[in-house]
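Morning, I've got a small favour to ask if you have a moment. I've dropped the whole record in just underneath, so have a look.
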Amino acid sequence: MTAFELLGGEATVRALVDRFYDLMDLEPQFAGIRALHPNTLDSSRDKLFWFLCGWLGGPNHYIDRFGHPRLRARHLPFPIGESERNQWLACMGLAMQDESLPEPLQERLMQAFFGTADWMRNV
């Protein structure tokens, strides 16, 4: 099964993304990555949801709308170092816990998220 299927599909991915951005918006420990986003997070929520659906093995909503994600290129304008990487991972870790994802799935996803988040570093 894909991670998308193990999560339970789009509804769970949407809930995870929404919790991620809620935490980013509310928790002071994520102020560094929050500052890299626009004032309104609606577009960011949609883009991460669309991206994660495909990245997790589900529908390619992001590619259908925008083409290849080119993640690193799209994030180059933003200073992303170890601190930003770690904040992003911590925020996603809390979101997965809050959404009660099974522990083995959380571990699997955190390993995959770490690889991608680490690759995004540019400072």
